[in-house]
Design a protein that fits this description.
The complex is a heterodimer of chains A (453) and B (89). Chain A is α/β, with parallel strands linked by helices. In chain A, 45% of the residues lie in helices and 18% in strands. Chain A is globular and about 60 Å long. In chain B, a hairpin with a 2-residue loop joins strand 2 (29-38) and strand 3 (41-49). The chains are: A alpha/beta (453), B alpha+beta (89).
């Protein structure tokens, strides 16, 4: 036996003091066999299938958590993009959202994702119906999450969809204005969306996935931060990168173990481990503070993009050997309202949306959980979405926008969501108008990078 | 199947005996013990063998957690696979 007391104490310290956890065990469930030309019949089939497939999910996650002594924070479900079912049934898509919400609550999961459409190249009638229904669907449900993919490296950017999504994001906020604009916090606009992402709000079960699959998302910004701190200010950047790799390896191994065990007990194939440093508002569970530990006075200042690029890359390199299958988004998340360090930097004015945009070119996702002034126009939202999608399209990476217009609030005021979604300051935006560009519509053709064949 | 019991708390006579007794009550066999007192902080790591028929391991974990709280100790009861996974290749 090679295990030593030090190893055991290290693991216990990571869990007890450094907020190491399994962020989510997400069951992906295909709903293709629930499609029906009668929307009510389709909803009934969906409810039955979810209740059948995921009946033991929450209990199993709880059992594993207690036996292994690892906190499993969330059990979640992702489903086939609902626009595909809407294409068959037509009708009022909000019925689908209500069905997902009801099933999710009956199963005890805390989020259910997949109220989604993939429209990077064009829209079907089902896609259009679903997108139009998103604001109402998110306002009248609690745990349903929605995502729309409007661009990809292969297809370019669908500017008609970008224009539409600016309006939809704004409408989501307006309909939930009395509930901290919560609707918009459950909607992600993607470029190069991945099909096996276990993290919300952007999770959906891609059409190339099996009928049912278990994906695991691990986290641990606190662990990485502590490891960097222990290295001290004398360590060189390559030494820091090495330390982050080693830490990421250990964290991913834990995710792999939990994923395999959950898959065995639920008798469902194991999909991927998504090793993402996903911050929470809890003290010490912050990606911004890792960057500051590397040696920045505050996140958002000069040097931030370089540190984040190194961090994101080292996390991937450490994770890749630790798991039979690393997937999802794997890297570092930078959601502003969910990260105590980011919130502080945004409040101090050090972290601006322009710097965040640069950071998204090297992190694993995009402009995430950013609260913008309530009078931001749909056109401005669309233009930000287009900018972010362009970064993803050209760099062949996933980018996303989760922007929350804080209805009735101005830059500098505060919006509080509570829970994992946190809180944050309203960040100022440039107000010069992109309206003519946005209203052109059409498509940004796929870039030269797409011609790899 | 093996598990790791770790105990941390303020030192006093009888901690090891207490944990060992609780193990014995459940026919849990102790395989290895490492124990240290640093200043007045008691730290112990126990490797134990869980009988085959004790399938409800999470219940034992809960019981030890509860016992720890009663005794003002932090007791972790964890499957040994977690340590093997994280610290060996």
């Amino acid at each position: 036996m090679t295990r030593t007391s030090d190893n055991i104490l290290e693991t216990i310290r990571m869990i007890d003091e450094e907020c190491l956890d399994i962020r989510t065990v997400t069951m992906g469930i295909s709903l293709m066999d629930c499609a029906d030309s009668d929307i009510d019949r389709a909803c009934e089939k969906i409810y039955q299938k979810l209740m059948n497939k995921a009946k033991d999910l929450v209990k199993t996650a709880g059992d594993i958590s207690r036996e292994y002594g690892i906190p499993i924070v969330n059990a979640r479900i992702s489903v086939t993009p609902i626009s595909l079912l809407a294409s068959v049934s037509g009708g009022d898509c909000v019925k689908y959202a209500k069905t997902l919400d009801r099933a999710g609550k009956d199963l005890g999961v805390n989020f259910i994702g997949g109220y989604s459409a993939l429209v990077q190249k064009g829209m079907t009638e089902g896609d259009r119906l679903l997108i139009e229904s998103i604001p109402e669907a998110l306002a009248c449900t609690d745990i349903v999450c929605s995502s729309v993919n409007i661009g990809s490296t292969k297809a370019g950017i669908n500017m008609d969809a970008v224009k539409k999504m600016g309006q939809i994001v704004r409408r989501c906020s307006e309909l939930t204005a009395d509930n901290n604009c919560f609707g918009a916090a459950k909607l992600v606009v993607f470029c190069n969306a991945v099909e096996d992402n276990p993290f919300m709000a952007g999770a959906f079960h891609g059409i190339s996935e099996p009928d049912c699959v278990i994906n695991v998302g691990v986290s641990g910004p606190g662990v990485v931060r502590n490891a960097v701190r222990e290295a001290g200010p004398e360590a060189s950047m390559d030494e820091i990168a090495e330390i982050i790799k080693r830490t990421a390896f250990k964290v991913t191994r834990m995710g792999q173990l939990v994923g395999r065990e959950a898959s065995r007990r639920l008798n469902v194939p194991f999909g991927i481990v998504d090793l993402s440093l996903a911050p929470t508002p809890a003290v010490g569970d912050s990606v911004a503070q890792i960057l500051e530990e590397i040696g920045l006075e505050q996140c958002g200042g000069p040097g931030t993009t370089a540190c984040l690029a190194m961090l994101n890359d080292a996390v991937k390199k450490g994770g890749i050997m630790a798991s039979s299958s690393v997937g999802g988004l794997s890297g570092a998340f930078i959601p502003v309202s969910e990260d105590a360090g980011m919130i502080a930097a945004a409040e101090a004015g050090t972290l601006t949306i322009e710097k965040l945009e640069a950071m998204t070119a090297v992190c694993s996702v995009g402009l995430d959980m950013i609260i913008v002034p309530g009078d931001t126009t749909a056109e401005t939202l669309s233009a930000i979405i287009a900018d972010e999608a362009a970064i993803g399209m050209i760099n062949s990476k996933t980018t996303a926008c989760r922007l929350i217009p804080a209805i009735g609030k101005k830059a500098g005021e505060h919006l509080v969501f509570g829970g994992l979604l946190g809180e944050g300051p309203v960040m100022p935006l440039k107000t010069v108008s992109p309206a003519v560009m946005v209203h052109r519509g059409g498509r940004i053709p796929s870039p030269i990078q797409s011609l790899k064949n | 199947m093996r598990a790791v019991i770790s105990v941390v708390g303020k030192d006093r006579p009888g901690i090891l005996a207490f944990v060992a007794t609780e193990c014995a009550k459940r026919t849990i066999n102790i395989v290895d013990v490492t124990q240290k007192v640093l200043q007045d902080l008691f730290t112990m790591i126990m490797i134990v063998e869980i009988p085959e028929d004790l399938e409800n391991m999470h219940k034992i974990a809960d019981e030890f957690d509860e016992l720890g709280k009663e005794q003002a100790l932090r007791i972790h009861f964890m499957h040994e696979d977690i340590f093997n996974a994280m610290h060996t290749i």
